[in-house]
Write a structure and sequence with these properties.
- The protein has a seven-stranded parallel β-sheet with strand order 3-2-1-4-5-6-7, with helices on both faces.
- The protein is built from eight helices and seven strands.
- It is of the alpha/beta class and 272 residues long.
- The chain has a single domain, classed as NAD(P)-binding Rossmann-like Domain (Rossmann fold), CATH 3.40.50.
- The protein binds nicotinamide-adenine-dinucleotide.
Length: 272
């Protein structure tokens, strides 16, 4: 895959899947606008991009704040160059296990503002430039297996990610005439700082037992698919959600008959 002469904006690129996506795109030749709400994480990843021989622009803004997003995109476009690739990755986890009638309003709105409205904000701000430029483009949204399933504690997260899938299809149809591909990736359980911080060890272990591959994924397992979807090799793929989950969604094996003896891959991130 050759992304040389391309510029990619990756949101939430300071850690986890965002960082791995930025580095996979840079390894394929792209220059990167490294967005995060955390300045020190963003500049550390920008340094790693530069160490790969690519240009990097650190851009601190919350994707939930539309004026800040528009200002970030406008200045990146004028000072760094036209954005060819957008990876809408920034996301947060807020779980709530009380009665639905008592759910804090901040839990519902907080998730939607970052995980769904953030995708809309960044896409809107970029498309205002990308469409009139007339050079096509790629949008890759980071969704989740939880768009297609349900956990009691995460209803707002499910709704946000299902919304990301719906927005992916809507934008893909609308933008096909401009040769802008819009796809989503639905990761399963990926070993990142964010997921590790929000789930206890027993819950992580229970997830791992439920994955046919026998291990959580690595951030680069998602970054590699991001780079593919951002490449010309994927130019006829649009409006799709590609689940990268070690078989999680495909498996309906009842817990009681599950084969626990399956070997775990040697590079299992849960073993290190
Ligand atoms: N890790 C998983 O198992 C998993 C599974 C499915 C989907 N996802 C999705 O992948 C994405 C990344 O998850 P991760 O596990 O790498 O998370 P992470 O917490 O490790 O990294 C998220 C990054 O986003 C940044 N961020 C948070 N809020 C932001 C905001 N408002 N604006 C800009 N940046 C912000 C954080 O500072 C952090 O650097 C999320 O959209 C998440 O929902 C993750």
């Amino acid at each position: 895959m050759d992304l040389s002469s391309k510029i990619a904006l990756v949101t939430g690129a300071g850690s986890g899947i965002g960082s791995a996506s930025a580095l996979a795109l840079a390894a394929a030749g792209a220059d990167i606008v490294v967005n995060d709400i955390d300045a020190s994480k963003a500049s550390a990843v920008a340094g790693e991009v530069e160490a790969l021989g690519r240009r990097a622009l650190t851009s601190v803004a919350s994707v939930a704040d539309y004026p800040a997003v528009e200002s970030m995109v406008d200045s990146a476009w004028s000072d760094f160059g036209p954005i060819d690739i957008v990876v809408n990755n920034a996301g947060i986890y807020l779980f709530y296990d009380g009665p639905f009638g008592d759910m804090p309003l901040d839990n519902w709105h907080g998730i939607l503002e970052v995980n769904l409205h953030g995708v809309f904000h960044v896409s809107r701000a970029v498309l205002r430039h990308m469409v009139p430029r007339g050079a096509g483009g790629k949008i890759v949204n980071i969704s989740s297996v939880l768009a297609a399933t349900a956990h009691f504690t995460a209803s707002s997260y499910h709704v946000a990610k299902a919304g990301v899938n719906a927005l992916t299809r809507s934008l893909a149809v609308d933008l096909a005439k401009h040769k802008i591909n819009v796809n989503a990736i639905g990761p399963g359980a990926i070993a990142t700082e964010g997921l590790g911080a929000s789930l206890d060890a027993d819950t992580i272990s229970a997830y791992r037992d439920r994955i046919p591959w026998g291990a959580r994924g690595r951030p680069k397992d998602i970054g590699n698919v991001v780079a593919f979807l951002a490449s010309e090799e994927a130019s006829y793929i649009t409006g799709q959600v590609i689940y990268v989950d070690g078989g999680y969604l495909a498996d309906s094996t009842p817990e009681g008959v599950r084969d626990k003896s399956q070997p775990v891959p040697p590079d299992d991130p849960d073993l290190v």
